[in-house]
Amino acid sequence: MMVRxxxxxxxxxxxxxxxxxxxxxxxxxxxxxNVVGVxxxxxxxTSLSAGDLxxxxxxxxxxxxxxxxxxxxxxxxxxxxxxxxxxxHFIAVGTPQVRGGTGADMTYVDTxxxxxxxAITKDALIVGKSTVxxxxxxxLADLIAExxxxxxxxxxxxxxxxLREGFAVEDTLTPDRxxxxxxxxxxxxxxxxxxxxxxxRDTPWIxxxxxxxxxxxxxxxxxxxxxxxxxxxxxxxxxxxxGDITTLADAIGHDTRIGRxxxxxxxxxxxxCLPKDIRALQTRVAELGLDHSMRFLDEVDQIxxxxxxxxVALAFDTLDQDVIGKKIxxxxxxxKPLSDDVRDSPGLDVAARLFNAGADVAxxxxxxxxxxxxxxxxxxxxxxxxEAVTGAELVILTTEWDEFKTLTPEDLNHKVTTRRIIDxxxxxxxxxxxxxxxxxxxxxxxxxxx
Length: 450
Ligand SMILES: NC(=O)C1=CN([C@@H]2O[C@H](COP(=O)(O)OP(=O)(O)OC[C@H]3O[C@@H](n4cnc5c(N)ncnc54)[C@H](O)[C@@H]3O)[C@@H](O)[C@H]2O)C=CC1
Ligand SMILES: O=C(O)[C@H]1O[C@H](OP(=O)(O)OP(=O)(O)OC[C@H]2O[C@@H](n3ccc(=O)[nH]c3=O)[C@H](O)[C@@H]2O)[C@H](O)[C@@H](O)[C@@H]1O
What we know:
Blueprint: E1 11-15, H1 19-30, E2 34-38, H2 42-49, H3 60-70, E3 73-76, H4 80-83, E4 88-91, H5 107-119, E5 124-128, H6 136-147, E6 154-158, H7 168-173, E7 178-181, H8 185-195, E8 205-208, H9 210-241, H10 245-253, H11 274-287, H12 296-318, E9 327-331, H13 346-356, E10 360-364, H14 369-375, E11 380-381, H15 385-389, E12 394-397, H16 402-405, H17 409-412, E13 420-423, H18 430-435, E14 439-442
Parallel strand pairs: 1-2, 1-4, 2-3, 4-5, 5-6, 7-8, 9-10, 9-12, 10-11, 12-13, 13-14
Helix pairs in contact: 1-3, 5-6, 9-11, 9-12, 12-13
This protein binds 1,4-dihydronicotinamide adenine dinucleotide and uridine-5'-diphosphate-glucuronic acid.
Family: Belongs to the UDP-glucose/GDP-mannose dehydrogenase family.
Active site: 273
EC number: 1.1.1.22
């Protein structure tokens, strides 16, 4: 399937304007293209068209406003508007965990791709960015060939995305590497011209086939998840025998072959990607008859989920096994700082379990309250840290926002009813809290109750 897209790309569409797509659309405008973002959610489109970002991502609202106002970026629910206009179409729709299963739900990608192929009336390159099971690009290429207008030349490339929430703009405009899966050099050249402004001389450009491109993405996330569970498995050991998990992480992290990043022990990983991606990868390889190869990821998942249960168990220990009616302040409800995303959030999971056990849970998060309230409307959400901790019998720090990392005992001493804190992200200094008379617990540290 060879396309005759001009190497000079001017017009770009992005299908799906969630965390990934809205960022990609704004960054494409920043790189100089005329961009239209398309989504099936009319509310999202209305908000983005007004220059408002419906989620929290540092630096992105400014970029969206700049290019919406400047006329380089607009949003629509109508695919036909881009079908006759764009030279390159990026697919950035969701691939969530399938309901009641562990694989990826491919209905959004499949629908978006076939609807797009039907809507396109000029030669174009379609570029998949969503995270997908290996084999998807080849399958979609066939689907596109079956669906497209016969006189139109369409080609498909796979270009997985590695951005981190909280750093999405920076990661898109100055990526660590770009991975491009294509079936011909023309499509690669087209994408090279698209990303020319984002590439400096040293940015690795990895040109490969579909399968490798798809697998690089899930391999990266599986590796990151494994690294976190690796250190958390050692946290289970230091909780029993004693020792300091942070010193252990620092010490192995000094070995440049290992590296210190992603070795922070605590309540574990969450979010819309790492958990579902390791499950989808296992499911896909099992479908391929290779159920042994990725079985270790099941352990990675189990270690991770045990951290949440451990945090809840520590809360019970701290409160003498009786949480009913006791006020517990949960600080941090997003899956990580600098985001309002609560998908598969460890902190929210811990809060919900304690709430369901009868505790009077008071949540405070600088950005995540509104999203968490949609999931668990009966829990109490506070607008300030002060309100959440006042009268608390236990404080649990579940997301390491800066304003929590810098907390001191003096900030809380006279607000709480009882001086008890669980630092589930290992960011506070135990000695400061213990010296101020607090019962201080951290994951990876022997519990004061043992
Ligand atoms: N969130 C992140 O940081 C990253 C996400 N990814 C991957 O990117 C993909 C998207 O993830 P998110 O942006 O987080 O999901 P999201 O749920 O925030 O956004 C997906 C968007 O697609 C829209 N959509 C669904 N079907 C559509 C259709 N037929 N036409 C147009 N729009 C449609 C939805 O309305 C929604 O706005 C996933 O595969 C994810 O694994 C990859 C790297 C980073
Ligand atoms: O595929 C995706 O969507 C993205 O998933 C992750 O990015 P993100 O989910 O934004 O967040 P991370 O910074 O990776 O953190 C994930 C989770 O791991 C936890 N974590 C991270 C690091 C660590 O040392 N310990 C730890 O528990 C965080 O608190 C968070 O809950 C990857 O880092 C991105 O490269 C990838 O593009």
